Input
Amino acid sequence: MLEDGPSGQSAVDEPERGAETPKASGVKMPAWFDDVRKLGLGLKQLFGAQTRLIVAELGLARSGITLMLFMGLAAIVFAVALGFTLLALAGWGLAQWFGSWAWALAALAGIQLVLLIVAILVFRRAMHWLTLPASRAELAILAREAATQGKAEGELRAED
Output
């Protein structure tokens, strides 16, 4: 058997395409043998190209995750800035309508208080849904399965 070099290419000089191969004087190889050899070389090149493609894609994914996290953070910062800007515009509009900054800020605080109370009530309703009997049973099953899986993984790591 011939060994492949570090580049994946064999050390044997292969005839170039279009060049005539020298004829062996004694043993004649069947034609299908040459086809099988060409098939093997083609598969070797194909899998080598696939491996290089996978390595390149993993490199892109690795840098893409970092970029995605930074852009997510930037989106949050810009969303908060937009919220503050819209809040300031709403305050300015209320000040124009009421003719007084004090009344505008009081109305704005009242609107924010109402929105905060609504958010708290919706959160409490969602927590109540989690305490219903069917939800409690489902959460208990999930906790048991997680504990069993964690215990099994811990035992496998201890054996290794």
Summary: The mean pLDDT is 83. Helices lie at 31-98, 101-130, 133-159. Residues 63-157 form one domain. The two ends are 36 Å apart (CA to CA).
